[in-house]
Amino acid sequence: MLDADFFRRWMTIAAAVIDREADRLTELDSPIGDADHGSNMQRGFAVVRASLDKEPPDTPGAVLMLAGRQLISTVGGASGPLYGTLLRRAGKALGDAAEVSGADLARALRTGVDAVAALGGAAPGDKTMLDALVPAVDAFGEGDFTAARAAAEHGAEATIPLLARKGRASYLGERSIGHQDPGATSSALLFGALAEAAGAGE
Amino acid sequence: MTAADRRVGIVLVSHSREVAESVARLAAGLSGGGDTAPVAAAGGTPDGGLGTSSDLVSAAAASVDRGAGVAVLVDLGSAVLTVKALLAEGDELPEATRLVDAPFVEGAVAAVVTASAGADLDAVVAAASEAYAYRKE
């Protein structure tokens, strides 16, 4: 079973990973975006970590809802409301249980990813974060953290040949081809952090 | 409270503080001057950079809420997504807040003019959305 400590650990590891990879995310966002994805995510997750430290929520759902709320209010770019919605909806779906199972988390993440798709109006194949999130949630099953991480990473790499159909990158048309999507890349980092929190081996 | 006190509020959300503030001035200026509906700009990030701040959006909506509803017009990208995310959560914006599907500049002018004339929220939203129908060639 997964408790609030587990979810706080996930968010803390995510903040550290985003911090470490911020330059790479911004680099990926330079040719096809507005070169702010790394710094936006870094700022958002630093606030998430600080607010979880300050007043640690005592249920898994509350941890994700607080994290999501902070991302919506501090990121400043489109990734804020998108990741914020992902975590808030997932948190809401977990309810106020003190511990949740892998299957509960799978259902909650699915709810969150569906909300992201509805909010952004994107579908898999549009070269967005959904290209990592959807395969990750599909692979997660009832709690296979390693498979979810691998699917997210594979999904992010598979955005390279895609033509962007959403967001600023879509204005570039064919010139968006050949670049890995920064949002899909940060989504893979979040699933990497989730696997690390669960102690799944590389 | 008179009808004039209960006019629909308008919030203009842009990636840029300058764009939001300029469009707010333009819309108020074109609505005949005098006593216009409350308009608030929520542009850029709190430090003046490009982006969207949900805190600025929430504060702007609260500042123009007179109890007759708030119409929110947005430019693109994170401005659209931030307002949608705030509306989906239900408790961050005044009760009768609507995201208006409208062109930013033309829609803002239409919204402020109709709201200043005392129209209700449905009429303000309709007027702003109809701005899409204005052909330029």
From TrEMBL, chain A:
Family matches, as InterPro entries: DhaK_L_YcgS, DhaL_dom, DhaL_dom_sf, Dihydroxyacetone_Kinase
Residue ranges annotated for the DhaL domain, each copy included: 5-196
Gene3D superfamilies per record: 1.25.40.340
Keyword Mitochondrion: no
Keywords (A to Z) from UniProt: Kinase, Transferase
Regions annotated as coiled coil: none
Listed GO MF terms: kinase activity
Keyword Kinase attached: yes
Pfam families the UniProt entry points to: Dak2
Domain of life of the source: Bacteria
Protein name in UniProt: Dihydroxyacetone kinase subunit DhaL
Source organism of this protein record: Streptomyces beihaiensis
Gene: dhaL
TrEMBL record, chain B:
Origin: domain of life: Bacteria
Class of the enzyme per the UniProt entry, highest EC level: transferase
Catalytic activity from the UniProt record: dihydroxyacetone + phosphoenolpyruvate = dihydroxyacetone phosphate + pyruvate
Enzyme Commission number, as recorded: 2.7.1.121
InterPro entries: DhaM (IPR039643), DhaM_N (IPR012844), PTS_EIIA_man-typ (IPR004701), PTS_EIIA_man-typ_sf (IPR036662)
Keywords: Kinase, Transferase
Database matches in PROSITE patterns: PTS_EIIA_TYPE_4
GO molecular-function term, one example from the UniProt record: phosphoenolpyruvate-glycerone phosphotransferase activity
Name listed for the protein in its UniProt record: phosphoenolpyruvate--glycerone phosphotransferase
Residues annotated as domain PTS EIIA type-4: 7-137
The keyword Transferase is assigned to this record: yes
This protein's record includes keyword Kinase: yes
Summary of the function given for this chain in its UniProt record: Component of the dihydroxyacetone kinase complex, which is responsible for the phosphoenolpyruvate (PEP)-dependent phosphorylation of dihydroxyacetone. DhaM serves as the phosphoryl donor. Is phosphorylated by phosphoenolpyruvate in an EI- and HPr-dependent reaction, and a phosphorelay system on histidine residues finally leads to phosphoryl transfer to DhaL and dihydroxyacetone.
Species this chain originates from: Streptomyces beihaiensis
Subunit structure, interactors included: Homodimer. The dihydroxyacetone kinase complex is composed of a homodimer of DhaM, a homodimer of DhaK and the subunit DhaL.
